[in-house]
Amino acid sequence: MDVTEGIGVVAGVLTTVAFVPQAWKTLRTRSAGDFALPMLLLFCLGLAMWLAYGLMKSAPGLILANTVTLALALAILWVKLKEGR
Questions:
Q1: H-helix or E-strand spanning residue 5
Q2: Cβ atoms within 10 A of the Cβ of 77, count?
Q3: Global pTM?
């Protein structure tokens, strides 16, 4: 792994790990009231696009980080949509 890829992997790990406590709290409390629906939708779309970019570039750091973060964000979005009913 070269330095550039290493930086990408570390950045991906840091940003993904930073998101875990919020996702955990949202899933535990079953409340996403502090999240705006448009923000969650745009965030998930952005993550999906970063994932697609990572796949096109064959960049493991981008692929792994955005897959995990997208799964967490989709879980929060699911809670948000569920409580909106």
A1: helix 3-29
A2: 19
A3: 0.90
